[in-house]
Amino acid sequence: MNTNTPDTAVEELDVLVVGAGFAGLHQLDRLRKLGFSVKIFEAGAGLGGIWYWNCYPGARVDSEGAIYQYAREDLWRDFDYTELYPGWQELRRYFEHVDGKLDLSRDIRFDTRVESAVFDADANTWTVRATDGHTVTARYVVLCTGFGSKPYIPPIDGLDRFDGPCHHTGLWPQEGLDFTGKRVAVIGTGASGVQVAQEAAKDAASLTIFQRTPIQALPMRQKQLDAAAHSDLKKGMSDRFARRIDSFSGFDFDFLPKSALEVSEEERRETYEKLWEEGGFRFWLGTFNDVLFDQAANDTAYAFWRDKTRARIADPVLAEKLAPEVAAHPLGVKRPSLEQNFYDIFNQDNVHLVDLRETPIESVTETGIRTSDTEQEFDIIVLATGFDASTGGITAIDLEGTDGQTLREKWSEGVRAHLGVATAGFPNLLFVYGPHSPSGFCNGPTCAEIQGDLIVETLEHMREAGLQRIEATAEAENAWRDHVTELVGPTLFDKANSWYVGANIPGKPRQMLLYPGGLPQYLDNWRRSASESYSGFVLS
Ligand code: NA7
To answer: Could you list the residue ranges forming a coiled coil in this record (predicted)?
Structure first.
């Protein structure tokens, strides 16, 4: 229920933050303590960003919980996740814990979706309007909309005709939905599809998974954590957090300093076995340093993954569809997922796979899904079809800058954002975890804090220097885009149609949306700019 009361006077703020996930809450806490007047507008009714919206059965973070939290001892010292990889309920419990400690909610307006923001070039302020008409003016707008806040629902004929529940994973009903005894269809096999399928396979009468591209899911090695495990974890926390800043992806592990091709076959095999047993993203982001660059190196990793995976699937036809002999794309250049028993569920009688490359969906009917060869009845349809990632949450807002153009229009030909934080023509608008920043490759809370701190420092600098306006230059954002393009050139990322390159959304310009140089290199660039009086930005 929306309990917000309409305000008559327009509130004036130093900073309006959009989004109450990891990034937005960090901004609120830090800026407030520095004496800025700051509020968050949050579209959901609760805290957590993606963990508010993605409450589908099985939703779970693919980072270890120990490092999927703020690195602040006052927050981690007396909080424990009960699983190594916590689920959405625990993440919500974490956000409540943070709120209890930092008293954040009092400055958050929930149920408030930002619809538009217009820059006033005379006053150097933004006028921000929510869908309920509530309006504020703010000197700065910091968008913390996350990489996955705009769900993508494909234009499947008849989708709105279906009589039963049909939900996107990222818009899951807060009251939940029980799969027990139901005939469930899951469309999509990204991280969300894998997680929801594992859960539905337990209780559904039947589960039919509609796969277009096979995911390359890696073993999660989930563990329940008891008091002894918590105590052990606590001992290592400070070190683990300290290591994040030096790693490519903001984790406490990094690529090995050697090539997959320079070692003997035996050493390669032993290394892969070790990473596989350790679980998580180590087989992806803690592996040989050329796996994401060199096709021959990648082939060795893919062959290992394929053989391990196929060994778990009894039916050889299914094994070929789920883990094909010849890779659909190089391993790891499309986001892998962590799985617990995803490949094993296909040995159950109640689980079926539809290969959409052989039999595409033609339409959804009142009672089910029609593919090119048959029609099947379902009680529930789950759309695990992903997001207009990285940019979608930003371009969903009508942002009007200094030349009358919206940001949506500007980026319709491709993203330009200097250091991934600001774009020319839109002064005083900053992005945390935005496109062309390490977001997407980076452990979320790491980026929220580390990139977030740089933004806080910038605003502090502006205030101390008596400045009112910061804007990226067109030259700098073009150069940054070229830098991103240059970095991605020698990699294998362009060999998959992934959301990393915008290829999952029809019509979206194909370009690398993330910063592929890793967190340390990104931070070096920031520091250089800051030490050169914020080169690449005009401050006035
Ligand atoms: P993803 O990873 O983008 O996965 C979406 C899935 O939906 C993927 O398997 C797609 O197949 C499939 N898809 C998309 N459109 C269609 C249509 N029209 N028909 C059939 N199948 C379709 O989204 P997730 O929500 O799983 O994960 C997003 C991120 O959240 C993830 O990367 C993590 O960072 C957390 P495709 O592969 O495009 O052939």
So the answer is: none
Give CA–CA dist 213/122, Å, rounded.
51
212 lines ligand 1 (CB under 6 A): yes
Tokens of 487: 């970095």
Contact (Cβ atoms closer than 8 angstroms) between residue 342 and residue 217:
yes
For the Cβ of 335 lying below 6 angstroms from any atom of ligand 1, the answer is yes
Tokens of 464: 């101390």
Q: How far is the CA of 454 from the centre of ligand 1 (A)?
A: 32
At 180, list the tokens.
Answer: 């027990």
Q: What is the percent of the chain with per-residue pLDDT over 90, rounded to a whole number?
A: 97
Ligand 1 atom 14 nearest Cα:
385
Give the distance (Å) from ligand 1 centre to CA of residue 52.
19
Measured between alpha carbons, how far is 377 from 216 in angstroms, rounded to an integer? 29
CA–CA–CA angle 73, 35, 42 (5° rounding): 75
Instruction: Please indicate whether residue 187, judged by its CB atom, sits closer than 6 Å to ligand 1.
Output: yes
Residue bearing the CA closest to ligand 1, atom 25: 386
The answer to whether residue 514 is domain-embedded is: yes
Indicate whether 51 pLDDT > 50: yes
Identify the bridge partners of residue 136 per DSSP, sorted by sequence position: 11, 128
- Number of CB atoms found within 10 A of residue 3's CB: 7
Q: Which DSSP letter does residue 40 get?
A: E
> Could you tell me if residue 15 is inside a domain?
yes
- Mean pLDDT for the chain overall: 97
Residue 97 lies in a domain: no
| CA–CA gap between residue 83 and residue 154 (Å, rounded) | 34
Residue nearest atom 38 of ligand 1, based on CA coordinates: 504
Tell me if 381 sits within 8 A of 364, measured CB to CB: yes
Domain that holds residue 142: 11-47+104-150+389-539
Residue among 153, 157, 192 whose CB has most ligand 1 atoms within 8 A, to mutate? 192
Q: Indicate the helix (H) or strand (E) that contains 361.
A: strand 361-364
404 touches 122 (CB < 8 A): no
Residue 437 sits in a domain whose CATH number is 3.50.50.60
d(Cα 472, Cα 72) in Å, to the nearest integer? Answer: 31
Cα-Cα end-to-end distance for the chain: 43
Reported pTM = 0.97
Residue 253 lies in a domain: no
Which positions ≥6 away from 231 have C-beta within 8 Å?
none
In the sheet where 375-377 sits, what is the strand order? 361-364, 368-371, 375-377
Task: Give the pLDDT mean for 366-394.
Answer: 98
* Largest pairwise CA distance in the chain: 72
* Structural domain total, the chain: 1
Please tell me if the CB atom of residue 188 comes closer than 6 angstroms to any atom of ligand 1: yes
Q: What is the mean pLDDT of residues 111-123?
A: 98
In short, whether 193's Cβ falls inside 6 Å of ligand 1 is yes
In short, whether 435's Cβ falls inside 6 Å of ligand 1 is: no
